Amino acid sequence: MLDTLFVYGSFSEGMVHYSRLLPYLLDVRPAFVMGSVFRLPVGFPVYLQQGFYDIPGQVVRVTRPEVLLPLLDEFHGISVLTPDHGLFTRVETDVRLADTTERAWIYALLPHRLPKTAKPIEGGDWTRSLKENPPLPLRLTERQRTYIRKLGQCSGRDIVPIDLALYRELMHLDLVVDKGRRLALTPLGQDVHRFLE
Questions:
Q1: Distances (CA, A) of 11 to 25, 58, 138, 160, 197
Q2: What mean pLDDT comes out for the span 83-97?
Q3: How many whole angstroms separate alpha carbon 21 and alpha carbon 72?
Q4: Which pLDDT belongs to residue 196?
Q5: pLDDT tens for residues 107-119?
Q6: Backbone φ and ψ of 26, nearest 5°
Q7: Hey, which CATH number is domain 4-131, 3.90.226.10, 2.60.40.10, 1.20.1250.20, 3.10.490.10?
């Protein structure tokens, strides 16, 4: 089984999901793939195979890919039985390093799953885009993050108390919705919850 993976966005070094890779990492090298990237409303990029930009990222070599890859498949919403119903697909692709080209796995969003609100990142440099405008989870206060974590861990009937000022902040950001007697995460709020450490 191929033991190299091209990572970008939230799985790249220094980002929120990089820690999921740490127990398996052997080495990390800067690399590029050809394609395009779009910025999701939550602020992180997704990769599409269509396109002609050099997309920056890292090639990671991992131990035990037979354990790690199924975990990452589940995280990325890959549907084994009905691939078109998933969110992403894991494909082998050519990655360009400083002096060579290698094959590696990459998680590519299925084109029909690209949200209409996703914005193309011209030139493909998602790292510059994130520096200029950090993803929403990184812009939240610790108080906001704590509340979103609590809501994200609740079952449907749990009530999590909130003060009015925090309620207004999260409603203004479109992260919570009032369900009558309790608050719940909006779809954007659910995405933010997935990207919180």
A1: 12, 9, 15, 30, 12
A2: 92
A3: 9
A4: 85
A5: 999 999 999 999 9
A6: -105, -45
A7: 3.10.490.10
